[in-house]
User: What shape does this take?
Amino acid sequence: AVAITPDGKLAIVSAPSRYDAADKKLLLENYVQVVDLAASPAAVIAKLDIGHHPQALAINRAGTLMLATTTSGNVLVFAIDGQSVTLKDTLKISDKRLAGLSITPDGKSALVALRDEQGLMVLDIASDKVTTQRERVSTGVAPYSVDVSSTGKWALVGNVGTLAGDDDSITLVDISKRPYRAVQHVSVGALPEGIAISPDGRWVAVQTMNGSNLLPDNPGRQAKGRLTLFANQNGKLVEKSSLPAGEAGQGVVFTADGQYILAQFNVEKQLAVFAVANGKLKDTGKRLASTG
Assistant: This one.
């Protein structure tokens, strides 16, 4: 995960995970890195040991507060002052893994995905103090990614399920008033790790792995994932078009004007550029190469 301050000068990057082939297990690192984007070239200026493996990161619009979810069930609260990022508080949410996280545009609340318990937990934010009344919102199985529209009206959740190859779901949430409420659950392809709602809330993009992450001998194996576009018709998602995407693709994001979608193609090491044209997806054919 990466979170960027609103002025574009600082990025905070979560710790990597890596697979130990000899021991056949996943190794999770417990730190975040602070990157000075104003430097040329950009440089890591701090590495903070936080004692837990971070999952998602989110910075408020004032650029003064960052939240991080962890696999240990804690939400970590950081203060940002210029280039200084300091861990200020730890909020215990669960004994199980947390996943996606998003702060609402007004900066007064945040949505945290309870990956192993289903649902979202709502956090309350007052200045630099983060608390929770343990308000819950329904989701599908294993909520993973969370995104909110800049309008403060809608939130979107990608639910990744528990069995690779099975169809999964996304959840649309009305965040215009408390208590927040799920208004629609929509079936999509397998593993919708990449989900995004356009800044104006009109469009939803979902990148599903769709079996493209499975081994060749798995009956659910597909060569490519899919990118699907939904129209948000005042709280009702309607599928508009779907196109082949990358192999084991994950992240997806709208441009600020909502006219383009960038999709992360994992195996191909590319960002693919799609357009939203006349209410449909269009693959522009543009690919931005990445070394990672």
User: Anything to note?
Assistant: The chain is about 0% helix and 55% strand. The longest strand covers residues 280-289.
